[in-house]
Amino acid sequence: MALQEHIIIVAGGSGKRIKANIPKQYIVVNGKPLITYTIEVFFKYNPDIHMYIVAHKDYLSYLNELLKNYFPDKKIHTTTGGETRFESVKKGLVLIEADGSVVGIHDAARPMVSVETIKRCFETAAQKGNAIPVVNVNESIRVIENNSNKAINRTNYKIVQTPQCFNATAIKKAFEQDYSSLFTDDASVLEKSGEKIILVEGNTENIKITHDTDLILAQHLLK
Q: Strands, DSSP E only, in the chain?
């Protein structure tokens, strides 16, 4: 029997880098809030996926109303986030049983993730315990050290995306650790507990909407 699949969508950010009066995940693009595209692609991958959305406390009622309007036939669990992304993810994980199922964690502001990327992440995590999507670095990069800088081999580096997928028991246990500034994503939390992280292929358009220019690209790709 296939493992049960869960997805936590982290929507607790305020999106201050985008000049808007609402968080970026609620900005309307081509007639719909960005977060609806994110939700839709996970239901397209698996119509029966168990979905949990962690929202900023000031926007929880707004989110619940939005879900009623756009997804009236879907059961989507919502909860408030914490002061940090770590705390927000932890609050989402509380809602999931540690039963060996697979849980994905995804940024609400990544509406252009592909079904193929989601499939690779969940299937690999089911087989190997975890999986995170990555893409190649296409630009030249330099490292700055001791007031100097030098070129480095970009083939040794990857850009990390979401969803990051994990065995539910393992990731829940990993999030029992105290917060560290070294936790740059969910995989780094699991890694600190001694687990090896598995990389899978992401999709290049799966960017995190962060700046105004990202919205222009999203408007084109989400048509």
A: 5-11, 28-29, 32-33, 50-55, 76-80, 102-107, 130-136, 141-145, 148-152, 158-160, 164-167, 199-201
